[in-house]
Amino acid sequence: MSNAINDLKVVLVVDDDLTNRLVLSSLLKTSGYVSIEAKNGKEAVSAITKHYIDIILLDVMMPIMDGYEAAKIIKKTQTHFIPIIFLTAMTDENALAKCIESGGDDFLTKPFNHVVLNSKINSMLRIAELYKNIEEQSREIKEQNLLIEQEMQLTKKLFNKTIANDLRGDNAGLHYSMSPMSMFNGDLILSELNQTNGLDVLIGDFTGHGLSAAIGALPVSDVFRSMTQKGFAFANMLVEANTKLIELLPTHMFMATALISLDRSNNVLSIINAGLPDIYLYRQGEIVHTFKSKNIPLGISRLLPSQFEIEMQTLEYGDRIIASTDGIMEANNPNNEMFGLDRLLTIFKENSCPEKLFDMILSECNNFCEDAAQTDDITLLEVCHLEKVEYASSRRLSNEHKEASNWSLEFSLDIKSLRQLDILPYLMQAVDQLQPLESGRTKVHTVLTEMFANALDHGVLKLDSSMKDSPQGYMDFYLEKQKRLETFEEGNIQISLRHELNDDGGGRLTLHLMDSGEGYDFENVDTNKNQYSGRGNQLVSSLCTEMKILGKGNSVMAYYDWTVDKS
């Protein structure tokens, strides 16, 4: 297709009368235009494909193809906006209206005034130029939007990969559904294995939607994963996440959140609800406990671990914990009605199959909303306490590349140190850095946790484990522990860790803890295998190669042997 020469506008003159074409071409040349002629509509359509035409002067009544048909074809096939001015001898209103309906942009009746014709041409060319500018801007916007879309998709992929550690599965007892309102989700679910082979799950809901809401997920994810894997108490983890969000987020943004922790060693559920809707413990067809929000959301005010209120409940196998963000209750239907709390509670009451509760809530919510536009991120979480669990995948800190060596560590902690420092994560981090115990890391951490808890709770703080015989007892035990830790003025724990290589390429890790307590008659303790309250020694013994209770019962030594996998 050839272009106009010297930037002159090209006018296509279409008329079956030679005289009319010559007159128009002459007038156009005088006005500074280049003209191309066609005798009928068919030639006009052909000329459009061969030349770059800026405007068309089109007669109506012509042989082979009239102006109406030609205008329709040209408007349908044009690659850019080409104004069409009908020149007609007809004065009938219907005929003139048909000129516009068939694709004409203006009309002029014959005989026409040369000044008026020139004005109409100039006017249409200005409109055409405006169309051209709009099309160019539209093309640039589309290209820019495409580039932004590609970058957003890449960002989303990297974002999701960064925070993902998907442990979901029927055998894991973990299910969740996340439906974002936009490309980026302002809701967040993080899961990680804790040191009891149970799960720590964080569910969060940031203020707002999209990328601005989701950006806080990155620091929260980093803090959650690293501190959970290292064994920090979840209250300490929330303190660190809260500090990060205060530093990162603007003052009007925060994260409503809940931390759900399943202790599989003791069948205990611990929950901190900070601004989320009620969380439900569902057992044998009914809600047996509701965890209401008793803490402020993260990102608002600086907090200490002791300021988080933790609720605890004993668990039975088959128990389900149901949590959600406010998107479930605030989901709208086409009549702008909210799904609401009553509908949610009705599902709990009418459900006859606990295994289908999660899917039923999602299905009822989707059916209620129909095709209504989503107004918020919608997230639903279910955690089931199973007797046997199998997790799909879990990213763990790996130190398999480190070479084993002989080493020893000793710590002496007085009551002030015990009050201020959560020593276990640092001990495990030291072991991780010094020793390639990846395959036995969980066992070692569990052993160390149990030994330290026994020494602190029962030795230094003189707490009675029989307090934990009921759900309320767990709460009372925890509260009393915090109270005594803050008020006791005396007490200490001695910790010794030692590793020695053996001739087979493996080694033995020795853990020795001694507390300042009065000890106990360890030779006459009931060691029923279903009770872990008797200072936890049975659990320690089951995980270690050997365990010894020394002295008056306030000194425990455990041995953990490991070998090299030569397969």
TrEMBL record:
GO function terms (MF aspect): phosphatase activity
Entry-linked SMART domains: PP2C_SIG, REC
Keywords, in A-Z order: Coiled coil, Hydrolase
Pfam families registered for this protein in UniProt: Response_reg, SpoIIE
Residues forming coiled coils: 124-154
PROSITE patterns from the UniProt entry: RESPONSE_REGULATORY
Stretches assigned to the Response regulatory domain: 10-125
Cytoplasm is among the record's keywords: no
The keyword Hydrolase appears for this protein: yes
GO biological process: phosphorelay signal transduction system
Name of this protein: Response regulatory domain-containing protein
The organism of origin for this protein: hydrothermal vent metagenome
